[in-house]
Specification:
globular; 6-stranded mixed beta sheet; alpha/beta; Rossmann fold; 39% helix
Length: 233
């Protein structure tokens, strides 16, 4: 049944441009939500979605270790669109236990430690955020990472048991920035300082010339491991 719904939606949206795709989804389906990390891609989708319906659901995960610039663009987004983004935090007792067991920056010591941190700060809050959601919209693009090259525009996400829609999967980075500039969309100013991909402050750095756009995320790990678990293949 889930695959039938996915295929039915796919048949209807493949010929649509991204704005019309968003409009179709919001007007024909209930319980739709965008998960936003306040990235450039997510800001494009936030703009598109709120132009269709300002009451649409957009949520973000506050891991407790975000850059100050990320909070600034969060505030700018609320003010521009006259909304309040839904914010989900990790459970305080889980964070306290994490610090007791592997320390404040234990995520640098092993992939497992890093995944433990991501699970507490991102995965568990995301599971709560997706409760009752039928269609989960993301800002993933295929060219962002080798782990995302084969992701389709719409799929059934078995991990979170939800239909996952990736409207920008075939967009280029230049398309993202053209849209942001043309529509005066608020964006994270770290993008102007060599941060194409922005996550938690300890796990994100600016990239060097010629590096992959995801090279600044978990830079101490191999590229094949550079997902936190939100978007498994």
């Amino acid at each position: 049944m889930n695959l039938k719904i996915v295929n039915d939606i796919k048949e209807k949206i493949l010929s649509l441009n991204t704005s019309d795709l968003i409009k179709y989804i919001l007007e024909n389906h209930k319980n739709v939500a965008l998960s936003s990390s306040l990235s450039a891609e997510d800001q494009v989708l936030t703009d598109m979605i709120l132009k269709v319906n300002r009451n649409s659901r957009v949520f973000t995960l506050d891991t407790g270790r975000l850059h100050s610039e990320t909070y600034k663009v969060m505030d700018e987004t609320n003010l521009k669109y006259g909304v309040k983004l839904d914010i989900f935090f990790p459970k305080f007792d889980s964070v306290e236990n994490l610090y007791k067991t592997q320390g404040v920056n234990g995520h640098f010591e092993s992939i497992q430690n890093r995944k433990n941190c991501c699970n507490i700060r991102k995965i568990e809050p995301l599971k709560r955020a997706l409760k009752g959601v039928d269609i989960w919209i993301t800002g993933l693009r295929a060219s962002q990472s080798i782990t995302r090259e084969d992701m389709p525009i719409i799929e059934w996400d078995e991990n979170f048991k939800v239909i996952k829609l990736n409207p920008l999967i075939n967009w280029s980075e230049s398309q993202v920035w053209e849209y942001i500039k043309a529509n005066k969309v608020p964006y994270n100013k770290l993008h102007d300082k060599g941060y194409p991909s922005i996550g938690c402050e300890p796990c994100t750095r600016a990239i060097k010339e010629g590096e992959d756009i995801r090279a600044g995320r978990w830079w101490w790990e191999d590229p094949e491991h550079k997902e936190c678990g939100l978007h498994k293949k």
